[in-house]
Amino acid sequence: MTDPFQRAVSHAVPLEKRRAAIDALAADGRASDLAVLVRTRGLSGGLRREALDGLAACGADEELAAVADDASLPPEIRRTAAQK
């Protein structure tokens, strides 16, 4: 499993490597994948926030706005996206 997205979502991968995978997605500008991670219900809040940070780092303003407007997401995720 070499793809950063797959590492980020795999529960079998240690937390540090999952965070590193999210950082790699941000470094590669993979905003769509980061937005999917933010919306992934099975992902811990910390990893979802890390994906939000990645969206901000790669200048993905449209994706952040979409997350902030997504009523299906928890309010704290939406608030954080709106602040980025």
| Overall pLDDT confidence | 94
**Class by SSE composition:** mainly alpha
How much β-strand is present in the residues? under 5%
Major pleated sheet: none
Number of strands: 0
The low-confidence runs, each spanning 5 or more residues with pLDDT under 50, are none
Number of helices: 6
What is the rounded Rg? 12 Å
From the N-terminal CA to the C-terminal CA, the straight-line distance is 31 Å
Number of domains: 1
- Give me the strand/helix succession: HHHHHH
Helix content: over 70%
Outline: globular
How would you portray this structure in words?
With 84 residues, the protein is mainly alpha-helical. The model has no long low-confidence stretch (mean pLDDT 94). The longest helix has 13 residues, at 15-27. It contains six helices and no strands. The protein has one domain (4-83). Helices cover 70% and strands 0% of the residues.
